[in-house]
Amino acid sequence: LQWTVRQGLVDPQRVCIAGASYGGYATLMGLIKQPELYRCGINWVGVTDIDLLYSIHWSDQGGEWKGYGMPVLVGDREKDAEQLRATSPLQRAGELKRPLLMAYGAE
């Protein structure tokens, strides 16, 4: 982004970050961690509560994913609790300072 601004390709006062699924999560964390870069954000079905991933029952993720995949790829719920809180948009929602559109739904 900063390179495109330096090249005169982007107006830094009109940049919006947007994404779906992991991109939605990245949108939320971008607005939290670097709000000065963005005027607004659009999150479409992004993960907002990392802790919820460990306890949801409606997910299409099986027991093997929750028992092995989650602890290895996302983090161990107990051992990595501090890091999981630091990277959870829900836990850091109070830091959001830019307008944000969040879209979820089945249809």
Topology:
Blueprint: H1 2-6, E1 16-20, H2 22-33, E2 40-44, H3 63-74, H4 81-86, E3 100-103
Parallel strand pairs: 1-2, 2-3
Characterize the structure shown.
This protein has 107 residues and is of the alpha/beta class. It has one domain (11-103): 3-Layer(aba) Sandwich (Rossmann fold), CATH 3.40.50. It is 33% helix and 13% strand. It is built from 4 helices and 3 strands; from the N terminus they run H-E-H-E-H-H-E. A 3-stranded parallel β-sheet has the order 1-2-3, with helices on one face. The longest helix is centred in the first third of the chain and has 12 residues, at 22-33. It is elongated.
Short description:
The protein is of the alpha/beta class. The protein has four helices and three strands, in the order αβαβααβ.
Secondary-structure element pattern, one letter each: HEHEHHE
What's the number of structural domains? Answer: 1
Strand content: 5-15%
CATH class: Alpha Beta
How does CATH name the architecture? 3-Layer(aba) Sandwich
Average predicted confidence as pLDDT: 90
Helicity range: 25-40%
